[in-house]
Amino acid sequence: MSNLAINAAVQQLKQEHIRLCKELERVDQALSALGSLDRAQGKTGRGSKKSLGMKSKRKVSAAARKKMSEAARARWAAKRKEKAA
User: Fold this and answer.
1) Which domain holds residue 36?
2) Nearest to residue 35, comparing CAs of 24, 20, 51, 22?
3) Does any domain span residue 18?
4) 3-state SS string over 4-30?
5) Structural domain tally of the chain?
6) Does the residue 16 lie in any domain?
7) pTM
8) How confident is the model at residue 35, as a pLDDT?
9) pLDDT digit string (tens) for the chain, length 85 residues
């Protein structure tokens, strides 16, 4: 690529960066406006995970964690036994 073409590409990328920054600012303003509506209704923050389209994390019980841990130990013990043989 010639130096002129590289300079043109860099200039175009800078313009795109400026455009995206402005777009991000508009999105932030919209989220702030919606967040203030949530707070007016008694909610706090920018909104719940569900309202923002995010999935909540699953919670695993202590018994289930223990069962998974024991299963993992058994798998590793079988691998070590297999490797030793």
Assistant:
1) 3-49+60-84
2) 51
3) yes
4) HHHHHHHHHHHHHHHHHHHHHHHHHHH
5) 1
6) yes
7) 0.39
8) 78
9) 688 999 999 999 999 999 999 999 999 888 888 877 655 555 555 556 666 667 777 789 999 999 999 999 999 999 999 988 7
Q: Which amino acid is at 82?
A: E
- Say if 10 falls within a structural domain: yes
Q: Which amino acid is at 2?
A: S
Distance of CA 6 to the CA centre of its chain: 33
Residue 23 lies inside a defined structural domain of this protein: yes
Element (H, E) at 60: none
With tokens 């203030």, the residue in question is 36
3-state secondary structure of 85: coil
Distance between CA atoms of 47 and 34, rounded to whole angstroms? 8
Q: How far apart are CA 81 and CA 5, in angstroms?
A: 61
Structure-token match 């130990």, residue found: 73
